[in-house]
Amino acid sequence: xxxxxxxxxxxxxxxxxxxxxxxxVNGAVAQGIEAGIDRLEDDDSLWVGVLTGTRDFxxxxxxxxxxxxxxxxxxxxxKGGFAGIVTRERTKPIIAAVEGPALAGGTExxxxxxxxxxxxxxxxxIPEVKRSLxxxxxxxxxxPRVLPRNVAIELGLTGDPIxxxxxxxxxxVNRLAEPGKSIDEALALAAQITANAPLAxxxxxxLMIELAGADDETGIQRSNxxxxxxxxxxxxxxxxxxxxxxxxxxxKGK
Length: 254
Known about the structure:
Layout: E1 3-8, E2 11-16, H1 27-42, E3 48-52, H2 64-68, E4 76-77, E5 81-82, E6 94-98, E7 101-103, H3 105-112, E8 115-119, E9 123-125, H4 139-146, H5 149-158, E10 162-163, H6 164-170, E11 175-177, H7 182-194, H8 198-210, H9 216-230, H10 234-244
Parallel strand pairs: 2-3, 3-6, 6-8, 7-9, 8-11
Antiparallel strand pairs: 1-2, 4-5, 9-10
């Protein structure tokens, strides 16, 4: 398999495992990531996903041999587009745990995740212009959302990468880790998320994405609607009861 799966508590870890090609995306990788997200979405006991690569490389992007052969569709899936993730609609958060380079489509996969943990030895970039290509899987419009505009444009026009510490300073990366420790840091971040009510986490993620740029009236209305929906769940009562009883809540995701 080109994407391995491991369950750790309420977390599904998906690991791209194609080191002979620097984890470049082919059909097997795309289908493997999609299968992992399917499992994450369908299993009520899984609350957070972590997507990682191998120790030396997160992902080199698209397999250029497939593009050269006129077979880019092999890297796409019906649900998720490129790599099975860049256009995927989903409800649960995914953390990218990046070791080594995440370039071209590797950066675009990272941008498709909700949070990013990166090794200090990793780097990001969209070097497509160096091969007379464009970053067609989200990099051209998602990078300017998380980086200052001029920095994002520089990355796009030069094709040169940005090192993880600089990406952290500018907001692309949530947390830095020592080389080889990004998965540990990502799991620690996932544990902070899974300590919270899973349905509330999902609602919060959904609204923060949907309401970006919305006016205040719409934001308040949609937030109140979400609150009313959560008040009908058993976890709502558990959260209040646990607070009153001064104990940790026991979430059921219902």
